[in-house]
Amino acid sequence: MEFANGQIGILEVALAYGKDKKDPRSSLSVTGQDASSTKFTFKVNEPATVYYTLDGSRPTLKSPKLEAAGLREGAESLTVDKTTDVRWFSVDIAGNVENNYKPDGRHTGYRHEVVRVGGH
User: pTM higher than 0.85, yes or no?
Assistant: First the structure.
């Protein structure tokens, strides 16, 4: 019976995946700051990949991805040493893109925030 329950669980996950039509939602969260640097990460409301840029360019599917900090440690933190224009978007496992952003197009539906260093 245990085997059958495991198979049912797999089917339930597959069914939920097939019905997922909601875009993920993400935000930038500053996790530390001193006079010379600011540390931040991204928070997402569901399992998703976050693509980002730190140079003010449009993020695409070829942009850096937020990685795991380690096994069971959550997402990595990024550190910048100057005020930085951060742009990003997230994609969930069903392929839904945040804000219906088109990473390979000209659309500007990505997220955007300026991370300040040293109180500037």
Answer: no
List the domain boundaries for the chain. 23-115
72-86 pLDDT per residue, tens: 667 889 999 999 999
Fold of the CATH domain 23-115:
Immunoglobulin-like (2.60.40)
- Residues constituting the chain: 120
